[in-house]
Amino acid sequence: MSGLVLKLAPKERVLVNGAVIENGDRRSRLSIVTPDAHILRLRDAIHPEQANTPVRRVCYSAQLVLSGDIDPEEDRLPMLRRIEELSQVFTDPDSRAALSEATEAVISNNHYRCLKALRALLPREERLMAVRSQ
């Protein structure tokens, strides 16, 4: 069986095709076998007002594709441009690898993998922003 496997903590919520689903009192595991299902863990969700930095904005865009609010084809080129802009700032090898993975994920229409790769940059961006504000 292929597809996405979600391991959910007790009471964890997930958005599946626009419906919020809450896990019960025990840990559970769900296999999503529908290839084009829109899935987003709500614990990972970035709210619109939190999309206030360059990396968070790209993460938010990927999240909107995952939730089904944006057409992936329509957002492909703008997202690739934003990832390219990030590569002008994040020049270390680990960041480059994450950005490369995010780019490949967008091209292959795997926005969950894109979001995961971009989220790895959030702590680095936070450190850069802290240094800049000093």
TrEMBL record:
| GO molecular function ontology, one term from the record | mRNA 5'-UTR binding
Q: Please list the GO biological process terms of this entry.
A: bacterial-type flagellum organization; mRNA catabolic process; negative regulation of bacterial-type flagellum assembly
Q: Which keywords label this protein?
A: Bacterial flagellum biogenesis, Cell projection, Cilium, Flagellum, Repressor, RNA-binding
Origin, by domain of life?
Bacteria
Q: What is this protein called?
A: Flagellar biosynthesis repressor FlbT
Species per Swiss-Prot/TrEMBL record: Tritonibacter scottomollicae (Epibacterium scottomollicae)
| Gene (UniProt) | flbT
